Amino acid sequence: MLDYLALDDDYTAEERQVRDAARRFVDREVAPDVGDWFEDGRFPERLVGEMGDLDFYAPTLSWGDLPGLSETAYGLLMRELEAGDSAVRSMASVQGALVMWPIAEYGSDAQRERWLPGLASGDLVGCFGLTEPEHGSDPASMETRAESVGDGDGYRLFGTKTWITNAPIADVALVWAKLDSGTDGEADDGDGPVRGFLVETDADGVETPEIGGKLSMRASSTGQVVLDDVRVPEDAVLPGVEGMKGPLSCLTQARYGIAWGAVGAARDCFEVAREYATDRDQFGGPIGRFQLQQEKLAEMATQITTAQLLADRLAELKERGELRPQQVSMAKRNNVRTARDVARTAREMLGANGITTDYSPMRHAANMETVYTYEGTHDIHTLILGEDLTGISAFE
Ligand SMILES: Cc1cc2nc3c(=O)[nH]c(=O)nc-3n(C[C@H](O)[C@H](O)[C@H](O)COP(=O)(O)OP(=O)(O)OC[C@H]3O[C@@H](n4cnc5c(N)ncnc54)[C@H](O)[C@@H]3O)c2cc1C
């Protein structure tokens, strides 16, 4: 497999073990059927427990039996899962980085005891509700409200979250809502702080309908979380964080995984195209002997290697506690764009065969449209970098 600068040689034995375990899992459990899942538009729920058994959810945490792996090991896991399909990596990312991580970081001891073991094993599924129908790139404008019932009797939640990975199969939704001083269930003008609420999806007033008609990330379950006067207890709120720092810090964790995952999707496309170029004969020999095809392979290999270098450096900085969100934005932005470009080029090299689910590049290309959009669109990461580089915000 492509590792042009022998970067894998520098990983520890434990990191290579994690990489190999994830590769075996993808080879055995994902690759044979993922084309069918994509065509059928369904996420195979059996994978949830299998990934739990393999410690694929939040393995960097040291809580309980979680293994406390290095940031590089986590990145390698994301890379190998996304080489299988972005839907599989998304499942692990959401569960680990967007649900378990905030519970571990901002939750109470009781919340950790209540949720982390089941989420780690895959007996429970979590989802992360930030985006709303009218508020995507600008989540601070969210309309979802939490009214305090008073006297420590908990909260009433109102609002709709949309485009939520795992929502239709989730047991618990981490819902970000603004605290509201109103008492009549109507959203008022109050602009209280954003808080995270752990909402059980079987509670009265919660619905999690599936979103159909997706042409991207088809093997992932995506839905809404509709909250119609949902009563949650006082201890449903994450005590350790207030304001947009809550959801944004979770997104930094998940985007780190995406920066690595995109390398895996791109590498898989490259490998398929390289093999095809040496097998497929036209004009009396393999198409890989044409300079036009070699140029494509050379460019893909260079871009993938560059993306991997960025991911490796992020891991080093994260391990030292020095990683800034803007650096993660640079890597998410670059690596996903690389994967999107590589997937399209690989698809092109496969000719007509490239448009089928028999080969991975078009599936990856379709998935990359989502990955390019979620966790901050490419444009939004451009603006984050622009602000960081100039000190001037161009968001509004
Ligand atoms: C399959 C899938 C799974 C998802 N999973 C989750 C999930 O689990 N949880 C969750 O909370 N969300 C999830 N999302 C939602 C995702 O994060 C949002 O789609 C994303 O933030 C963009 O929001 P939007 O779609 O409303 O686009 P908009 O914000 O409406 O943007 C539309 C276009 O305008 C551009 N734009 C917006 N603002 C600016 C600006 N200031 N300057 C220049 N251009 C701008 C954008 O780049 C984009 O091209 C998911 C999305 C998909 C497709």
TrEMBL record:
<dbReference type="InterPro" id="IPR013786">
    <property type="entry name" value="AcylCoA_DH/ox_N"/>
</dbReference>
<dbReference type="InterPro" id="IPR009100">
    <property type="entry name" value="AcylCoA_DH/oxidase_NM_dom_sf"/>
</dbReference>
<dbReference type="GO" id="GO:0033539">
    <property type="term" value="P:fatty acid beta-oxidation using acyl-CoA dehydrogenase"/>
</dbReference>
<dbReference type="GO" id="GO:0004361">
    <property type="term" value="F:glutaryl-CoA dehydrogenase activity"/>
</dbReference>
<dbReference type="InterPro" id="IPR009075">
    <property type="entry name" value="AcylCo_DH/oxidase_C"/>
</dbReference>
<dbReference type="InterPro" id="IPR037069">
    <property type="entry name" value="AcylCoA_DH/ox_N_sf"/>
</dbReference>
<keyword id="KW-0809">Transit peptide</keyword>
<dbReference type="GO" id="GO:0000062">
    <property type="term" value="F:fatty-acyl-CoA binding"/>
</dbReference>
<dbReference type="InterPro" id="IPR006091">
    <property type="entry name" value="Acyl-CoA_Oxase/DH_mid-dom"/>
</dbReference>
<dbReference type="Pfam" id="PF00441">
    <property type="entry name" value="Acyl-CoA_dh_1"/>
</dbReference>
<dbReference type="InterPro" id="IPR052033">
    <property type="entry name" value="Glutaryl-CoA_DH_mitochondrial"/>
</dbReference>
<dbReference type="Pfam" id="PF02771">
    <property type="entry name" value="Acyl-CoA_dh_N"/>
</dbReference>
<keyword id="KW-0274">FAD</keyword>
<dbReference type="InterPro" id="IPR046373">
    <property type="entry name" value="Acyl-CoA_Oxase/DH_mid-dom_sf"/>
</dbReference>
<dbReference type="Pfam" id="PF02770">
    <property type="entry name" value="Acyl-CoA_dh_M"/>
</dbReference>
<keyword id="KW-0560">Oxidoreductase</keyword>
<dbReference type="InterPro" id="IPR036250">
    <property type="entry name" value="AcylCo_DH-like_C"/>
</dbReference>
<protein>
    <submittedName>
        <fullName>Glutaryl-CoA dehydrogenase</fullName>
    </submittedName>
</protein>
<comment type="similarity">
    <text>Belongs to the acyl-CoA dehydrogenase family.</text>
</comment>
<dbReference type="GO" id="GO:0046949">
    <property type="term" value="P:fatty-acyl-CoA biosynthetic process"/>
</dbReference>
<feature type="domain" description="Acyl-CoA dehydrogenase/oxidase C-terminal">
    <location>
        <begin position="243"/>
        <end position="388"/>
    </location>
</feature>
<dbReference type="GO" id="GO:0050660">
    <property type="term" value="F:flavin adenine dinucleotide binding"/>
</dbReference>
<keyword id="KW-0285">Flavoprotein</keyword>
<feature type="domain" description="Acyl-CoA dehydrogenase/oxidase N-terminal">
    <location>
        <begin position="12"/>
        <end position="123"/>
    </location>
</feature>
<feature type="domain" description="Acyl-CoA oxidase/dehydrogenase middle">
    <location>
        <begin position="127"/>
        <end position="230"/>
    </location>
</feature>
